[in-house]
Amino acid sequence: MAEKLLFTGKTHNTGGRNGGTRSSDGQLDLRLTQPHPAAENLFGAAWSACFIGAIELAAVQRKIRLAAGPEVDAEIDLNVGDGSYFLRARLNVSLPDVDRELAQELIEAAHDICPYSKATRGNIDVAVNLV
Predict the structure, then answer these.
(1) DSSP state of 91
(2) What are the structural domain ranges in the chain?
(3) N or C: at which end does the chain have fewer Cβ atoms within 10 angstroms?
């Protein structure tokens, strides 16, 4: 199957983690100040939004109607060890009114579907928890 570009996010950052960032479409315009972990929060927000879409797609693929929308709390840890920085992540997923076994199946499928999950696989420690 041929590849198709769906979207390109474009941002401009000045000053790194102590500056500002703005998207080319004007939807995002943030001041990044220390010690606020804006980068980790932005990453968590983007990943959790994508993960919800992946859960919904996994449900559609299985012909399952979700009575309530999925919810994801993302926790992105910035760590340092041996002089090197690294990330750890937890995605705490709630699927109200879905049987636990089916909910677990959907979040495992979503973790295989979500581009953020694919990008981090094998690169950072990730825990996906059904809560």
Answers:
(1) E
(2) 37-130
(3) N
Reading the chain (131 residues) residue by residue, the pLDDT tens digits are 799 998 999 999 898 877 888 999 999 998 887 766 778 989 999 999 999 999 999 999 999 999 899 999 999 999 999 999 999 999 999 999 999 999 999 999 999 999 999 999 999 999 999 99
To the question of pTM greater than 0.85 for the whole model, the response is yes
Q: Quick one: which of 52, 51, 41 has its CA closest to 77?
A: 41
Angle at 22 between CA 19 and CA 24, to 5 degrees: 150
Total length of the chain: 131
**Torsion-angle region of residue 106: left (phi > 0), alpha (psi -120 to 50) or beta?**
alpha
